[in-house]
Every structure is written in C-alpha cells, then in structure tokens.
Amino acid sequence: MADTLRVDQPRASKLVAAAVQAGHLRREADQADGRRTLLAVTPAGRELLESAHAFRRSVVARVTRDWPAAERAAFARLFTRFMDDFGAANGPSEED
Q: What is the end-to-end Cα distance of the chain in Å, rounded?
C-alpha cells in the first residue's frame, strides 16, 4: 500500500487504520499467503468514492457547461489521457 500511495510504510499504516476505523475499508486474510492482509472497500467506502466521483463530475460539468461540444469532447479525451499518464508516472517506478 505504501508504494501505491507513494508514502512511507508507517504513514500508509496510519491511513489504512483510519480508513478501517471509519468503515471505508476492511481487512481480510489472504488465503494464498497467511502473512499478508488484503484490503477490501466496504459498502460505505464505495458510497464515499461514488460521492467524490459525482462531485468531480458535477464540477467539470459546471465549469464546461458553456463550452462547445467539440471542446468538451477534446477536453474529456485529453483529461483521460492525462490521468492515465499521471497514474503511470506516479506508480512504483523502476528505481523503487
């Protein structure tokens, strides 16, 4: 999780513990490797994620409402590309 979040292990542990305590994640035993713990998003966590996504969609819709359709389509395409590349650039690097 620390690698995914690009934080140190103690910080990742605190973030996970907070999410578990808030009811957004739950820990599950890894049936393939008893030394590992898996994290699962709870229904409350899914609801929180959907709320965040809906908020972002509403902001983008509000900001771009007066844009011509072609510009909105171009923005959507480029923003999707940006997010894909951003995720790849911020994932674990070959140097890690």
A: 14
Angle between helical axes of 43-64 and 69-90 (0-180°, round to 10): 140
Q: How far is CA 54 from CA 2, 15, 51, 63, 72, in A?
A: 27, 23, 5, 14, 18
Token representation of residue 6: 């690009």
Please give the DSSP secondary-structure letter assigned to residue 35. Answer: T
Burial of 25 (0-12, 13-18, 19+ CB in 10 A): buried
CA neighbours within 13 Å on the CB side: how many for 42? 13
Q: What is the pLDDT of residues 14-37, one digit of tens each?
A: 999 999 999 999 999 989 888 889
